[in-house]
Amino acid sequence: MWWFRPKPKPEPERDVAERLDDLEDDVKHINRRFTRLQQQVTRWAREYDEDLDDDLEDEDEVLSEIQKRRSANG
Question: How far apart are CA 51 and CA 15, in angstroms?
């Protein structure tokens, strides 16, 4: 049994202009994907910030209630 795979056949030579076109298309695709990821992260950050704002408002209400009760008893 032969342990090594046969060598793959080399790809035929491509024109330089064709390769550059492929690379440009790839760069455009990557930039589109990156833009989508940035948009998604921005959305998540906004949702996270809104959640933090809600939490802070809740804490403020709790702290104000504690202060009211302390001043009423004191």
Answer: 54
